Amino acid sequence: MDPTDLSPLLQQLARHVDELDASLAPILASPLADTAAKLPLLDKAKLYVLATYALESCLFSYLRLHGVDARQHPVFRELARVKQYFAKIQAVTAVDEQKQPAMTLDTAAAGRVIRSSLAGNDKIDLARAEQQAKERARALLRATDLAKKRKGTAMEGDAAQQGSTASGKKRMVMGATGTLPPDAGDDVEATASSLSTGVQSHRRSKKQKRKSSKPGETAHTTTAATES
After folding, report:
1. Distance of alpha carbon 180 from alpha carbon 173, whole angstroms
2. pLDDT in tens, 10-64
3. Helix ranges (DSSP H) in the chain
C-alpha cells in the first residue's frame, strides 16, 4: 500500500472512535464517582484502573503522533504503574475464584421452597395428598408381597424337610418289621430269582457228586464180602 494513501486507515480509526463513543456513552452520561458508588469494591477498583489506563493510553498515543519520545515522558511511567494495579486486581480475582465453593443444588431445600410457595392452593394440595397416598399404598403392597413370598418359601422348606424325615422314619419301621416299601417290588423279584437260580445250581452239583461217588461204594462193598 502507498504510504501516502492513509484514507483506509483514517476510515478505520473513525469507525473505532464511533464504536468507542457508543460504548462509553453510559459511563460518560453521569460522573464517574456516581457510577463507581453503585459497584462492589472490586468492581469499583477495576473501573478506576480501566479509566486511568484509557486516559494514559490516549496521552501516550497523542505524544507519539506529535513526534515526542513518549517512553521518556512521565506518562510512560504512569502506564507502568497502572499495569501493576492490573496485576494486583487479577491476583485478588484468582484468589476469590479459588475460595468460591462449587455451586450445588440443594434438592431438599428447593422442594421445601416449592411446597411452601404452592401452599394454599386447594387443588394442588389435594393432588399432592393423593400422590403421597398412592405412593404409601404402593410401598405397603410391595412390603406385603415380599412378606408373603418369604413366608411361602419358608413353609415349602419346612414341608420338604418334614417329608424327607417322614420317609426316612417309614423306611426304618418297614425294615424293623420285615416289610418292604411298595417301590421295592422290583428289587425283591430280582433277589428271589437269583436265589432260586442259586438253589437249583446247588442241587444239580450235589446230584453230580452223588453219582460220581456210587461206583466206589459198590466196589468197597464187594471187597468186604469176599474177605469175609
Report:
1. 9
2. 889 889 888 988 887 887 788 888 888 888 888 899 989 988 998 889 899 889 9
3. 7-28, 32-37, 41-65, 74-99, 107-118, 122-177, 185-227
